[in-house]
Amino acid sequence: MKSPTRTPRLEDVAQLAGVSSATVSRFVNNPQVVAAETGKRIRAAIAQTGYVPNAIAGSLATSRSRLVSVMIPDISPSVFNSTVEAMIDELTAEGKVVMIGLTGPDFARLGAQVDAALARQAEAIILTGPMPDEALNAKLRARSTTVIQTWGLPEEPLDVAVGFSHAAVGEESAAFAIRRGYRRAHLVSTVGLRAERRRDGFRRRWAEAGLPDPTQELFPIPLHFGHGRAAFRTMRRMAEQPDLVVCSSDWVAQALIVEAQAAGLRVPDDLAVLGFGNMAFAAEMRPTITTVEIDGTRIARECAAMLRQRALSQEIVERRIDVGFRLVVRESA
Amino acid sequence: MKSPTRTPRLEDVAQLAGVSSATVSRFVNNPQVVAAETGKRIRAAIAQTGYVPNAIAGSLATSRSRLVSVMIPDISPSVFNSTVEAMIDELTAEGKVVMIGLTGPDFARLGAQVDAALARQAEAIILTGPMPDEALNAKLRARSTTVIQTWGLPEEPLDVAVGFSHAAVGEESAAFAIRRGYRRAHLVSTVGLRAERRRDGFRRRWAEAGLPDPTQELFPIPLHFGHGRAAFRTMRRMAEQPDLVVCSSDWVAQALIVEAQAAGLRVPDDLAVLGFGNMAFAAEMRPTITTVEIDGTRIARECAAMLRQRALSQEIVERRIDVGFRLVVRESA
DNA sequence: CTGAAAGCGCTTACAG
DNA sequence: CTGAAAGCGCTTACAG
Fold first, then answer.
1. Smallest CA–CA separation between B121 and chain A, in Å?
2. Both B184 and B159 in a single domain?
3. How far is B87 from B65, CA to CA, in rounded Å?
4. Which domain holds residue A80?
5. How confident is the model at residue A3 (pLDDT cuts 50, 70, 90)?
6. Which of B85, B100, B332 to mutate to test the interface with A (most CBs of A within 10 A)?
7. What is the pLDDT of residues B266-285, one digit of tens each?
8. What is the count of structural domains for chain A?
9. Does a structural domain hold residue A30?
10. Which of A149, A254, B125, B245 is the most buried (most CB within 10 A)?
11. Sign of CA dihedral A259, A260, A261, A263
């Protein structure tokens, strides 16, 4: 049962405290500029009325929304998860509100979500998805809203970018596999630019070592457990069995391991498996999964730092921040 | 590089179209009340300026924020995941913006997050956590903000509630286990009211069947994979080995299965395992996991429906909606 | 169908 | 240190 008592405003507090609403506003936003005695009366009035400032009115008056929009394809078993959680934590701590835009796995609703963010005067839009199309680019460029591209690290960011090089991930995975002595690699990944960059990096390094071109199977985004099963079936039908499968996600890696074990293969002796994402479970399965870790917390922190810089000066020194990645070597490869 | 061109306002569009800003506002919110000819000119002006309405100003003018706050403990491998995704989908489709408040696993920041939501004039606050304390209750009751308690289904909701009965989950799990012929149950769950209700329900039914009181181990929230390992170790040290472990999460169930298999036990023949949550992987592991499914999409849909009702009439017919749950019987028990 | 004008609840330069 | 007042960009009852 909601009681329809009117929500208290600044003015209500002011009357109760016997001051002007301007003074209450100052006290709320900057207590030390108000005389101690006055402050005490205002504090009491706020407690008595249960006043909570109306941030909508505040935002309108200052033209600062404190809203940051984060665009992600989806939530559930997503590799973006920890990054998003870290973003919410970081930005909330700075008094921002984080609005999550779910664009759908194929980013179909990206345009609509950007409009929603702009309508709410988002101070920044953080894109984890692929580059928006040219129309969207133009719209974003015309605004003062900060646009941060994350995960992928475009050569020429729309505005600023924080991420890592997918090509480098591919290359370093290949270098590791070569050192380990694997010779027949099979790549399981997704359509789309990012995964393609990783595959290309892998292939380049692999070819440099004089190894036979890897076989591959691509799935639509997002990858899930079931794709690992399908990939295993395909793989078993191949003329020559690979000794290493490189997966675009830990989920797929885990599914492949489960299937391989069920088929009597030993991992990694008969078949090695490399994952991507270093999700929490990767360290816990049997065998534990060798994978690539992206430091989502670091990405979130750099994003927050960029926003702070922008707030202070509109001048961002470094427009591209490479947070790198880490190959986490465990048992599966 | 951001170009600092001024963001277009309603007035800019109006001048370009040669009408008043009121007319543009009408066109934007309710096109059919404007003459077709006028509409055409306005549409052109909007396209030319790239105008996006300022939702902050709109919210202030109408006192409708379209903001809905969802409070969850955390994101990563959480059982709340699909529910939250469904909420975002449902509410976004109705033109709302969803603000996610991360309260921390122990809900420590719930009070602060509620204040943030109220400050932004959230139209509704959706709580997945435990009942807030009395001070928070009072603050929420005094506001016209709709408060929806989800997951758990309190006897006497603060405002309205959508969820299921934890006690019933416990009872039905026990009934199932009894039918299956298990006799020595071990419960692995968390401290806190909800898990306790499930345990109590289980025990009640178990005792009715004349079976020996289940043993148990409790962990702090949130449960994760590692707890399953720890639980298995504890279990192995027990004088009498259980034939069934009932887990508060699929993650724990999966970890137990992995450990049991590594120790040479067959699941479910030597040890049966029951999970909770029906996370995507539960259907994919070997053995697949028998678990309890909560329909997060249904919960989200009912929440959205309640908000629609409230918007129309302030009268909500049903204050408690029980969405039930489903025991998904697979291989692990 | 359209316009002039008041109002939503704040913030902040300007005076004092 | 404090107050009066303008302004943030919309919406909407009221007139016409």
1. 6
2. no
3. 17
4. 65-164+296-324
5. very low
6. B100
7. 999 999 999 999 988 899 88
8. 3
9. yes
10. B245
11. positive
